[in-house]
């Protein structure tokens, strides 16, 4: 479970280095459009526990709530190619009392060429009713510590 330590610096951005797999590509050797989501979400899922000591399932079990995606905005700038090493970065760029926006972006290995940008908007909802609920406790501390946005009105 995440425990905020005021003496600790929490990076606001995660980063992973991954190779584009053959099975995820189309006949033109481009990463399939839908596969970008898998690469983004898997990278964040791998990095959050390493950077913050947080397993999202701990939050879900304790607070009986989870984030549910209700909007994606994605821009495919330059294709990722089979066998190419890429960098995937992610960060929470905004949050309020019950919503977060996570930004994901993919670059070439040297981080000089943007390939894809994704903004995902997620609502925090209760497991039992599926209704919006407010961020509280360690969830709110995590958001304050790791996002660039501190406006939680």
From TrEMBL:
Protein name: Acyl-CoA thioesterase
Protein origin, superkingdom: Bacteria
InterPro entries: HotDog_dom_sf
Organism, scientific name: Algoriphagus pacificus
Xref: Gene3D superfamilies: Hotdog Thioesterase
């Amino acid at each position: 479970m995440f425990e905020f330590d005021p003496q600790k610096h929490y990076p606001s951005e995660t980063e992973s280095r991954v190779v584009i797999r053959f099975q995820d590509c189309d006949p033109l050797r481009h990463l399939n459009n839908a596969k970008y989501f898998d690469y983004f979400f898997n990278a964040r899922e791998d990095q959050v526990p390493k950077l913050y000591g947080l397993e999202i399932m701990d939050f879900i079990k304790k607070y009986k709530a989870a984030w549910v995606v209700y909007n994606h905005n994605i821009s495919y700038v330059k294709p990722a190619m089979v066998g190419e090493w890429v960098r995937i970065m992610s960060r929470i760029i905004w949050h309020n009392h019950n919503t977060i926006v996570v930004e994901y972006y993919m670059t070439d290995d040297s981080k000089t060429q943007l390939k894809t940008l994704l903004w995902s908007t997620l609502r925090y909802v209760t497991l039992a009713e599926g209704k919006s609920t407010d961020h509280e406790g360690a969830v709110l501390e995590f958001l304050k510590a790791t996002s660039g946005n501190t406006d939680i009105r």
